[in-house]
Every structure is written in C-alpha cells, then in structure tokens.
Amino acid sequence: MDGTKIRSALSMMDERGSGEGAGYAVYGAFPEFADYYAIHVFFDAVHESKAAVDRELGNWGTVVHEEEIPTYENRNIRKVHTPWRYFFKPDPSLMPRSETPEDDIVMHLVMKINTTIPGALVYASGKNVGIFKAAGWPEDVADFYRIQDYSGYIWLAHNRYPTNTPGWWGGAHPFNLLGWSVVHNGEITSYGTNRRFIESYGYRCTMYTDTEVVAYLFDLLVRRHGLRPEMAVKALAPPFWDDIDRMDAKERTLYKAVRLAYGSAMMNGPFAIVVAQRDGIVGFTDRIKLRPLVCGIAGSRLYISSEEAAIRTMEPGLDEVFMPRAGEPVVGRLGK
Amino acid sequence: MTRVTIDAAGMHYTPLNRRIREAIGAGADEIIITGVMGQRFIADGVRGRATIIIHGIPGGDLGMFMSGPTCIVYGNCDHAPGNTMDGGMIIIHGSAGDAVAHSMRGGKVFVRDTIGYRGGIHMKQYQDKCPVLVIGGEFRSYLGEYMAGGLILALGDPGKNSGKERGIGSGIHGGRIVIRGGPLDDRCLGVGAAQRPLSGEGYREIQPLIKEFADVFSLDPDPLLRDRYTEIVPSSSRPFANKYTWE
C-alpha cells in the first residue's frame, strides 16, 4: 500500500486537528536497508549539530547510508528543522551483557543524543520504519514528504490538536522508538507517574508531550520484560479491582500481579491508542471509554480509526465494522 | 410534495448545511442527501417539518439542536447523533457511536442496531418536552449517565445485554431507563440508580413506542411486547442532595 489512501482518510478528520502537527509511519519503507536501524533526526541546523551525532553513532557502530529526507516545498509548512535519516548497524560486542545488544545500543543512543546534543532530536529508530511528521495539517505534511512515494505493509497516521503543550515537529505523532510507533487521541493525565517509572529504566522523555511514554512503556513491557502485547495493554489499562475480584482464581492471581507490578505504568485519563511494531498493530482505549475507536476488517486487512467514515474512505467494502470494548485490545498480526 | 436531492460526496459540512437550509427555506418536504462520508453537524439547528434522508456514514453530532425535522439515516452514525436535540426525530438504520442523544431535550432518536458508551448521557425534560431514545441492539456502559429526564428504552436481546456493562444510570437524578428482560445484576447499576420491575402503567407507556419502533424498522413487535421489562430510576427524589450542598 502506498500513502495515498491514508492521506485522504486523515484529511477527512481535519476537524480533529489544529494544523499544528501531523504525521505518518510506514513499515516496510526501506526494503534495501531492511536490516539497518533507520535513525531519523530533526536538526535545528545541520552544520551545528550533525558532527556530534555522527561521532556518537560512530562510537557504537557503522552508518551504511545517510541522507537528508527528501521534502518538497509547501507554503503551509515552515521548514524549521532538517529531517535526516541514517541507516545504522550497531556493534553488538559493545554491549556484551545484554540479551538484545543491538536494540539496547540504539535505545541508549536515542536517549544520549536527545539529552546531550543540542539542536538534534532522534524521533525514530526502527528497522524498515519510516516516520514522516511536522507541524502542519495532515495533507500538507503528506505532500511535504510525498508519502504517496512510500509503500509498506502497515501504515499509521495522526492529526494532532495540541492541548497541554505547544505543537512542534517533535511533538507530532507517531512517536517511535526501535520497532514501536504510537498514535494517540486523548491525554495521559498520569504522565508524571508514568514518566518517573519509565525514566527509572533508562528512558528519557524529551518531546514535551505525554504520548512519548507509551512508546517507551511498550518497549519496556514487551521487548525487555517479554509480555505479550495483549498483556501489556492489560498493564496500561487494567481491569477494575471489582472485576478482578470476580475472576476465577488463576486469572485473579495473574491480573493482581500485573496491577501490582505495573501500578506506576497504568495510564489514567482519556485515550485511544494504536501501537505498531514490525509484525502487527494493537489498538485500545482507556477502560471507561472516554475516546472513540472503530475497527474495520476487509479480507486480511485490519483498520483502526477514530471514525468509521475514515476507514470507509480507504476501504468502501468492509466485511465487518465494530467498536471494541473499553480497555480491550484489538490485535492485528502480520500474516505469513 | 417538493423533493430536493443533494450529492454530498467530497463536500464540506458547511456548504452541505447551507444547501439543507436553503432547501428547507424554499419549502422542501423531502431532502435526500447521497454520498455522505464523515460530514459532521448535518442538519444542526434546523427547524420545520422536512424529512431529511441521509445515505452514507454521517460524522458526529447529527441533528444537534434540531427542532422539528425527521432525519432518516441509511448507514452507521458516529458520536452523539441527537446532541441537545429539541424536537423531531432521528431514525438510524444501522448503529451509532458513543454519547447518542447527548443532553437531548425533546423528540425521538431510534437506533436499529447497537450504540456505544454513554447513550443518553444527561438527557433532560421540561413540561411537555420529554426526549426518547430507543435502542434495538446492544448498549455499552454508562447508559443514561447523569440522566436528568426523558426515557431510554433498550429493546436488545436481554441475553446479549448481559452483566458486562457497568455504571448504568450513574448519577441519574431524573428520567427513566427501561431495559428489556429481568433484573440486572446490581453491580451493573451506577451510583444513585435503583431498579424495579416495570409497572403495568409503565408498560402501557412504552407499548406505543415499541409498536412505532417495530413499524419503522419492519420488525415483528410481538416478542418485544410479550417480554418483561426492568426500569432503572433515581434511587430517591434527590439522590445527590448531600453531594454538593448541605444545610
């Protein structure tokens, strides 16, 4: 699939945004560099910050290819950052005690660059994942990067209406770390607690907005702690205690343990979220359903959106449409 | 009879609503809108007696503040159709999203299939204005949340509307929620809500509504008329008297 349809679907929901941030994620964007981490960086000024980023990457591995991400002049987007991408191979021998040394090196690099190199922000770092975002309306951001020129097997798209923090390029969705990309409607009022929790595991929040923690929480819970995505959702949006009390003994023990272990990861506030990784997507809402989420199925394709009309804009002939229950994950896995 | 057809494909809701208002102003009895895809606020604030027939998937807040016309939708609605509607009718041949009939103050909303969370949130009534929401399929949690007046009638299969939903009538201080079937598990009820079997008088009140609903959607009314019903009402005349004020 190329980016044409998702652009038109997002455009249909312009009312949900304010023109201060939009973005797209596409999995399968870089087949020729599929085995390399696609490190995306916003530079305030390339000549000031890029040498430091190059040095940092060089310390931990090899850059096999790099380029300024192609953009096309758009009168509604002021190009305040220069987006750049590196295709990077970390040297696993440099992180000898890790079970996932390459991922850990890249995560370390993202946090290090974002906290120590002024004027450089790593906003994506997954293999074969392209992230295209900026401050602007969805159509303008799509045209700015010409997302119709990219093709992939999973697409995410988002239109932002910043409420608690100003809109800026780094605050546009999707948020990405390693394979994880996140789009979110709502606000995470437990951000302070979640941030303290996730920073105790070495993550650093640098994007001035709540959604960032969701990408890091998924990386921690699923990649590093080995939870299935469904269980990660149950940790972030857990069943109510009175529902847990009524479960059978085995389930009750499990959900009690999850709530106790991940109490500080639990997210409060209104949210509808879709998280993607290389082999699938998961969508879920807060447990009292303060934001909309609609799913559509057409053949082997799963669509998740805030509005049914957006799904039908992409796929007029749906086999099935449904609204998942609050807090219940909807998972789409890549077919073989 | 004057009939006006509008092709809404690719049209923003502002010009679409302008066309609807022009048609009503020119005395149209029936306005047929085709190709609707996500346009919000359709028929908001319109008055009169016209019938507006909508083909497609309208966006949120269909018929908000509407007073008089009838909207018939062939497709699913998004959030809050009938938001603060004052009079008239919305008939949905499909399902609807969250907060259906939000703050509704008069008229009727009929949904053939399911609705999302918080159906009938903060419906209200005053003197001769008594809004009615009838749901043919399942509903989700917080049905009739903060309800202050009016009637919600849920006709869905009682087996399907099982004990999964919570907070039904949470914060209710007026109006009634009538659900097909026997009593609910008490844990499904929200704070301030109480349930009781529907009285004979209550049943006589919903009978014409059931017949009208069945007629609109070409359903057999008999199984609905034969079944028993449970009524959910405020637990007292002022269930929250001590919550925000005290003497």
The portion of residues forming beta strands of chain B comes to 25-35%
CATH top level label of chain A:
Alpha Beta
Listing every helix as H and every strand as E from the N terminus to the C terminus, the arrangement of chain A reads HEEHEEHEEHEEEHHHHHEEEEHEE
Give the CATH architecture of the domain at 95-240 in chain B: 3 Solenoid
Termini gap of chain B: 60 Å
| Helix/strand structural class of chain A | alpha+beta
Number of DSSP strand runs of chain B: 11
What is the terminal separation of chain A in angstroms? Answer: 17 Å
CATH superfamily of the domain at 95-240 in chain B: Glutamate synthase, alpha subunit, C-terminal domain
Order of helices and strands of chain B: EHEEEEEEEEEHHEH
Radius of gyration of chain A: 19 Å
Q: So what's the overall shape of chain A?
A: globular
Most strands sheet of chain A: 5 strands, antiparallel
CATH superfamily of chain A: Aminohydrolase, N-terminal nucleophile (Ntn) domain
Q: What characterizes the major β-sheet of chain B?
A: 11 strands, mixed
Task: Please name the defining characteristics of this protein.
heterodimer, A: alpha+beta, Glutamine Phosphoribosylpyrophosphate, subunit 1, domain 1, 5-stranded antiparallel sheet, 4-stranded antiparallel sheet, 15 strands, 30% helix, B: 247 residues, alpha/beta, Pectate Lyase C-like, 11 strands, globular
How would you summarize this macromolecular structure in one to three sentences?
The complex is a heterodimer of chains A (336) and B (247). Chain A is an alpha+beta fold and 336 residues long.
What does this structure look like?
The complex is a heterodimer of chains A (336) and B (247). By secondary structure, chain A is α+β, with helices and mostly antiparallel strands. Chain A has a single domain (4-333), classed as Glutamine Phosphoribosylpyrophosphate, subunit 1, domain 1, CATH 3.60.20. Chain A is built from ten helices and 15 strands. Chain A has a five-stranded antiparallel β-sheet, with helices on one face. In chain A, a hairpin with a 2-residue loop joins strand 10 (271-277) and strand 11. In chain A, helix 1 packs antiparallel against helix 10. The longest helix of chain A is centred in the N-terminal third of the chain and has 16 residues, at 101-116. The radius of gyration of chain A is 19 Å and the shape is globular. The two termini of chain A are 17 Å apart. The model of chain A has no long low-confidence stretch (mean pLDDT 96). Chain B has 247 residues and is α/β, with parallel strands linked by helices. Chain B has a domain at 95-240: Pectate Lyase C-like. Helices cover 16% and strands 27% of the residues of chain B. Chain B has four helices and eleven strands. Chain B has an eleven-stranded mixed β-sheet, sandwiched between helices. In chain B, strand 1, helix 1 and strand 2 form a beta-alpha-beta unit. The longest helix of chain B has 17 residues, at 200-216. Chain B is globular. The mean pLDDT of chain B is 95. The A-B interface holds A 12-13, 15, 240, 242, 288-289, 292, 294, 307-310, 312-313, 321, 323, 325-326 and B 37-38, 40, 57-60, 76, 78-79, 97-98, 116-118, 140-142, 164, 166-167, 187.
